[in-house]
Amino acid sequence: MKKSGCGVSEDTGRLIIKRLLMTKLAVLLGFALSIQSFANGYGQGNINLRLEKTPLKKVFRAIEDQGFFRFVYKDEILPKDQRISIKVKHETVENVLAEILGNTGLSYYKLSENLIVITRERPDEDARALVAIKVTGKVTNDKDEPLGGVSVQEKGTNNGTTTKEDGTYSLEVTNPKATLVFSYVGLGSRELAMNGKNVVDMKFTASLENSLKDIVVVGYGTQKKVTVTGAVATVKGSELEKSPTVNLTNSLVGRLPGVYAVQASGEPGYDGSTIRIRGTNTLGNTSALVVVDGIPDIAGGLERINPADIESMSVLKDASAAIYGSRAANGVILVTTKHGKTGKPQLSYTFNHGWAQPDRIPKMATATEYAAINNATYIYDHISDPSEWSAALTAFNQTGTYISPANGTQTAPFQPADVKKYADGSDPWGHPNTDWFKTTLKTWAPQVQHTLQINGGSDNIRYLASLGYQDQDGYYKNSATGYKQYDMRLNLDAKVNKWINTGINLTAREEYRFFPTQTAGSIFRMLMRGRPTDPEVWPNGLPGPDIENGQNPIVITTSQTGYDKDKRDYFQVNGRVEVLVPWVPGLKLTGMATADKENRIEKVWQTPWTLYFWDHKTYEADGKTPLLTKSVRSTFTSPQLSETNYNYLNILLSGFINYDKTLGNHTINLLAAVTKETDKEDDFNAYRTNFISPAVDQLFAGGAPQQNVGGSAYERAKLSYFGRAAYNYKEKYLAEFTWRVDGSYLFPQQHRWGFFPSVSAGWRISEEEFFKKSVTFVNYLKLRGSWGQMGNDQVYYLKNGTPTLYEYQYLSTYGFSNYVINNQAATTLYETVVPNLNFTWEVANNTDVGLEGQLLNGKINFEFDYFYNRRTHILWQPSGSTPASSGISAILPPENIGKTENKGYEFTLGYTNHSGPWSYSISVNGGYAKNKILFFDEAPGAPKWQLATGHPFGASGSPNNGAAFLAYQYDGVFRDAKDITDNKVDYTGVTPGLKPGDMKFKDVNGDGKIDGNDQVRLNKTQDPTFTGGVNIRVGYKDLDLSILFQGATGGLLYIGTESGDIGNYLQYSYDHQWTIDHPSSTDPRLANRGNTYYTGGGARNNTYFLRNSDYLRLKNIELGYNLSPSLLKRAGISQFRIYASGLNLITWDKMKIWDPESTSGSGQYYPQSRILNLGARVTF
Amino acid sequence: MIVTGVTLLAACKQDFLNTQPLNQISANATWADGGLSEAFVTNIYNGLGNGGFDEQQLSSLSDEAVFVHPGRGINTINEGTLSPSNLGWQSGTYEWGSMYSQIRATNVALENLRTATFDDTVLNHRLAGEAHFLRAYYYHQLVRYYGGVPIVDHSYGLNQDYSIARSSFSDCVNFITADCDSAASLLTGKSLAKGRATAVSALALKSRILLYAASDLHDITTAKSKSTVISSYANPELLGYTTGDRVARWQAAKDAAYAVIQAGGGGYKLGLSAPATSADAQNSYLSIAMGGGSNAPGVDKAASAELLFERDFSSQLVSGGPGTDGTSVGLDNGPNGYHNWAGNAPLQQLVDDYEMMDGTKFDWTNSAEAAAPYKNRDPRMYATLLFDGAGWKPRSKITSNPDPVNQIQSGQYETTPGGALLAGLDTRQSPVENWNASWTGYYMRKFIDPDPNIVDNNTRQYIPWPFLRYTEAVLNYVEACNELGQDVEAQTWLNKIRFRAGMPATTETGDALRQRIRNERRVELAYEEHRYHDARRWMIASATLGRKIVFINVVGNLKSGALAPSPYKHDETLYTYHYTPVQDNSLENRTWLDKMYFRPISRDEVNKNAKLIQNPGYTN
Asked: Quick check: B26 and A991 CB within 8 A?
């Protein structure tokens, strides 16, 4: 054959046909057709053969080798011993076959011009079936209305068609036992076997079949969903793709019951959600373990994986995580990336263009409101007798000056004439009304994503390659903030021979974060502070003065101050070899090696910047244009450069032995494994200043004085042995046992190893005969339970306010520091810890009971879990009971002293149905988790109502170092002088004298005095206790719509802004305050910064400022349209989808100040995003 | 795969999990090596923090200054709302837990030096001497804030009984002086790099603690007579001497001070026989404050001879942001009109306590003095603080050229006769960062490097903090002599200080001399963390620290016929300036309660250590 046919090269075609024969699969009609088409240019009688005593199979091959003909047969029908000799020239195939088949008892028929089927002369049913069969039918919905546009395919082939408007179809297949796959957007796909019939009608009802056959990825393996005995939540990659966010962690919330995700910032590069499975289970490190394609704790984590590369995500919430051992105590998130599928190469391209904006910007006071507040706080602070306040306010408003009998002449900070100008806008230069957020932020910040994916393969080798690019802009006008990512993935799976499978997964990614030199925290601090009475930008467009330290948001958000570039390169490769042991069926050995490498370079280049000032009285020569002066206003005058280089390598070697055996109704699966892991890191940093010029941003150009270099390194090691034994009887009674022996370098040698078992069991009640007979409307019902222990080696608590991993706490070692001797830096040593030789694994004891089922043929599905987690031997410093006078309270080693519990429930309830061209489903899920400290090392003498023990806790590093809020109990406000005279409680413990508008507190211990002992430990933390979501899906013909509502309840947030003469007030504060002419008994007087006992000082922590952060939001919506396949076919396109989506579109909450997911109560953070997105995906 | 399997199996045989920390060094290796041992001892100096150069200074807990920014827990202390559960602001340089952490380090060092295996015994003794000094220093910090404290003279191990009672005040003093003696003896004759404690440092520390020990507050008989809170306290031995000979304590204080005078190198310019000129006196005082760390013209680096123990700063160790590492004193305390933060602003009460050049007290009722309060004053005033019209560094020309003459503008000035008042650049009505302006009308100057190349807003300074200086020991000596009735000796040494300061000699005796000495100490040692303690140990806090805050209100009225200069400048030919002291409680409503003699021990600490007895006047 010298030329190729329609689309399939001759070699490929040959290869595929051969394989088909070898594997005894039915012929693919599609290929046959294609071969037929390229055969048209050839004659049919050109066979030349010269063979001596050749097996029949080789004869066929020899004929095939000459190009045109293909033979289809089953190996076993060929006579084993018969040898054939033949010598022909330019002979027709009919004659040749007659000759060679003469004594074999075989006959043949031509399926097509060039495809010849060899059968026995008395063919059995199978062989006879191998003919082109036309199958027709009609697809309807459960109301017998025809469904058009349904794809009908012969299973395992690309042979297919779609139904017409009247629901009918017609397709030619080769095997009367072929299975047809019907798929319809919004309804998923159904399979029907032909079973010899050639009229196959499909009634598209919401079917049970499909979801019950789902395969779920679990620890080191997969299981049928129906046989899973643990609490496992799953989500498909295609679901996650619906969220138009560039950070995968932001797509999880509301989709997986029991998975808590809180997004605290929207800053490009740092916009990930904190994820906790079933809330907070321990005082220390609460991160879930992320396992990507079998690699635990992968560098870079979950955040930046391209959702288009994800096949599925499973979350192991209970003891099902135990197989992952030492880091799995907080649950496991398993990510499985897509692998190549057998078939012709598929190319798909996805494009997204989104527009992001802050989901919510705090409303701030206007210039006139700000002036009014400042005049009022001036009176509160400077007029000592409150009975004069009213007169003072009147005087301030009328003349701007008040002569106080007690305090002399007092001048209003904002004079009536000025206030008038702020109000009427007549003097934009001198009396602006600046909206700092509006001036600094643009309306929409664009973001784009491109993904190109190729996938395909044969039975022996399959591949998936993917390329991704992302570009995300910041909210600022002329933003220096942004995020770019380049990623690629190559997943190869090869079958070397019948016994050996192998696979290589390769990922490379560059994450490029760039920022201005000022942090988002400083920028938003300035936006919160910016006084509306000050200009940010002069009316002529030049930047106005700084708020302080050179910080004017319009400049410090741009590259005018230099840059901060952070490049992280990840290279992750994972190779796997599986050997099926030939002489022991069911026995498999697997070896896996992983290299996980991260290289990070951060470069911060700071250059001085200039701003424009006006003295409010000097003008240009024209006498009316204000004269602006340019001045360097950075807090340094010489450029500064710091560079950090960080190198990380993790090597993981694992070996597995699997044995799977089914004996009658009994199935056992055994696994034994060992993993060995090393982490190595080294870093280096350098700093120089006094650059010869801001034009050269390289280290060599910096001056020698003040240059500074540093660096560090670490090495870590873990070794684990583990195994699993699973048993089931008819998939009805299920049981599983897993064990782990973990060793970690974090523990002293003699306490290094821990043993952690777990058991789980399931009972598929719906498989019982009695149940099948009596409860017919329930198709599936399973009761399951699990209990397991997991070790946690993370010695993790605060160090100078930052959560830190504490290593080598069993060694007597000294750390390095500095002190100035002889006016120079001398290296010094300090004691880092009092070594403890007796600490070992923290133990998670997790119990779960679950019930799951399906009703009415799968129209209704539900799942309910109750869990009880108890964490014992928590690694914690006994600093609560060790007096500081011991001298060791700051260098205490960990001990296994903490004990906590966490209990709650999760549920999912779904309903799926369709009607005519409509299909719809709704699913509700939720998770509640409430934890409690059972033992926490606390000062023995502390008041009971202040103990953290018995109360919930957050993660280490959250406010109060994880403990629940400790606060004074707000009890209203002293409305007036009489209220104060009537007061019997002594407030001298918090303030020397009460004034109207001061806050009242409850005298909790009843001693007639407000002091520190009146603070109460609350039963809430910043974290929500309940989170849930509602997923709604509607399909109509080629249109589909997904809506996700998501909400959370049970958390509190402390609200406290930097307001006063130093910065602006929230509009909320202006609207809710005690004032001289509108005294309130619920809202206190506003204060200049912390200048009252309830805004600063000891009683700042009070319940008035703790606000409920409950919310419900329209989290995600996607509307998609799939172009008709028949239209696309002509263009060689198999799928073309366009869609529009949105994120965080509407939020309902009580706080109404900033985003309720915020963990900052001061507004000094980069807000979460609202995103609108348009996208398209085309697959060839 | 087989290779993998073998590797994995082999792993458990090796010490695969025995990784070692790469950024630390073992204790054993440290004490076998002189250099590493020295590094350990050197680190204990880090407990000194930034000396007194925190953004919030101890001066603002006294009648020297008031801290400008609210909400830092300073008013908690000054308004007397402090309690064991509401401690207010505490510096790490004396905070209970920080001190005990450092004390442990000294104990670890002393224990290990005894068995250390490196050869250099000279070094070993020197390090032991430094450790003794530092232990004494940290205990002295505890004792002067809290009274008698638990004496921990060894390093605790794990799982021991950590409950420990407070030692009596006298035991603590004895422990500190013993450490000072050990340090002095071990350090004598050793060469010590700048920044380390020397034998003289140890003598000076001993002098200070013995002076405190002899004072009123720690003589329980006297203290009880002056305070009902103390007289009703069940454990007065924790606060002072309940028995013993007070004269002997004054004698010990005198002897210790004299030992410093003899060994301390003579200080700086204390040999004058007559008052220096005002200009020289200002320069001497400024040079001492600069401690050799300033390159400003005229500043004499030789004045660093005054410093007997100091905390140095270096450009190599500029670590944290401004206000965190002791090198931004100018930013922390300078005028807002220079884009600085005012910080610890001087009070009118401090200004009032600077004598007139002739040695008389300044008097607001004297109309001439009231009309020109900044004329003819103790030269040290001009080197300690900035007032309206005072000359200062070049102002950054951010708003045209608002101040071509580089003067402080902390007043309000008429622009037309009888017309609107223009607020100065350094006021709270300033167009420049007014929330950072001083309320009092004054700014701290003493420790700010006057070098015009140091733009405080964006340039660091490297001025050492003086923990102990020669003049303090002289003042200790003078005070002890006076208390012992040796007034002539007291006058002699007091006048040496006064001559250097440009002030006339005093010939007073008895209580008049005592008051003069106390005022001299207040003025000479202003902003050096003395007033807080002195006012307490003299038991004059009620009348001094407890006073309401007084600010100055400066108004410049145009003289008849005068035209307002533009831009404004201080000009007494054009303006008549009116100075009005104003009491203002808006920032802090100061008071004095006798519980404030001692800091409360934190409620948590008391709850952890059942043997601890709380200080008088505190419940919870």
From this structure: no
Q: Are B481 and B254 in contact (CB under 8 A)?
A: yes
Judged by CB atoms closer than 8 Å, whether chains meet at A813 and B107 is answered as no
pLDDT value at residue B567: 85
**How many Å apart are CA B485 and CA B152, to the nearest integer?**
38
What angle in degrees, to the nearest 10, is found between the helix axes of B96-115 and B121-146? 160
Q: Would the CB atoms of B81 and A829 count as touching at under 8 Å?
A: no
Which sign, positive or negative, has the C-alpha torsion A783, A788, A793, A796?
Answer: positive
Query: How far is Cα B614 from Cα A974, in angstroms, rounded to an integer?
Result: 33
Contacts of B227 (CB under 8 A, 6+ apart): B539, B594, B597
B158–A834 C-beta distance less than 8 A: yes
The two tokens of residue B141 are: 């910090």
User: Residue A48's pLDDT band (boundaries 50, 70, 90)?
Assistant: confident
Q: What is the pLDDT of residues A212-241, one digit of tens each?
A: 667 778 878 788 888 888 888 888 888 888
Residue of A nearest to B197 (CA): A821
pLDDT value, residue A420: 95
Strands (E), A548-702: 562-580, 587-606, 610-613, 629-632, 640-663, 666-689
Residue A604 CA: distances (Å) to CA of A267, A520, A647, B422: 18, 15, 18, 43
* Closest by CA position to B205, among listed B137, B255, B147, B135: B137
Interface test with B, best of A721, A812, A820 (most B CBs within 10 A): A820
DSSP designation for B572:
T
Q: Provide the residue type at A937 as one letter.
A: D
CB contact under 8 A, B22 and A715: yes
Helix axes B510-524, B487-500, angle to 10 degrees: 30
Burial of B10 (0-12, 13-18, 19+ CB in 10 A): exposed
Between the two ends of chain B, the Cα-to-Cα distance in Å is 67
ipTM attached to this prediction: 0.95
CA distance A554 to chain B (A): 18
Alpha carbon distances (Å) from A145 to A182, A613, A710, A1017, A1034: 16, 75, 74, 63, 18
Which A positions 936-975 lie with beta carbon below 8 A of chain B?
Answer: 939-942
Question: How many CB contacts within 8 angstroms connect chain A with chain B?
Answer: 325
Residue A201 and residue A190 in contact, taking contact as beta carbons nearer than 8 Å: no
- What pLDDT, on the 0 to 100 scale, is given for residue A7? 39
Instruction: Tell me the C-alpha to C-alpha distance, in Å, between residue B315 and each of A642, A820, B309, B319.
Output: 16, 10, 20, 9
CA distance A1158 to A1083: 23
Facing residues of A672 across strands?
A657, A723
Nearest chain B residue to A619, by CA: B400
| Lowest-confidence pick of A106-115, A380-389, A781-790, B606-615 | A106-115
Q: Is the pLDDT of residue A1076 over 70?
A: yes
pLDDT band at A157 (very low <50, low <70, confident <90, very high): low
**How far is B334 from chain A, CA to nearest CA, in Å?**
14
By Cβ distance, the residue of A591, A827, A890 closest to B4 is: A591
pLDDT confidence of A186, banded at 50, 70, 90? low
Query: What residue in B sits closest to A817 (Cα-Cα)?
Result: B43
Note the pLDDT tens digit of each residue in A80-99.
777 888 888 888 888 888 88
Among all residues of chain B, which has the CA nearest to that of A1097? B73
Token digits of residue A822: 């002889």
Query: Do B330 and B343 touch, CB atoms closer than 8 A?
Result: no
Using one digit for the tens of pLDDT, what is the confidence trace for A1134-1163?
Answer: 888 899 999 999 999 998 899 998 888 899
User: Average of pLDDT values for A757-782?
Assistant: 89
Residues of chain B with pLDDT under 50: 1-4, 6-8, 10-13
Computed over every residue of chain A, the mean pLDDT equals 86
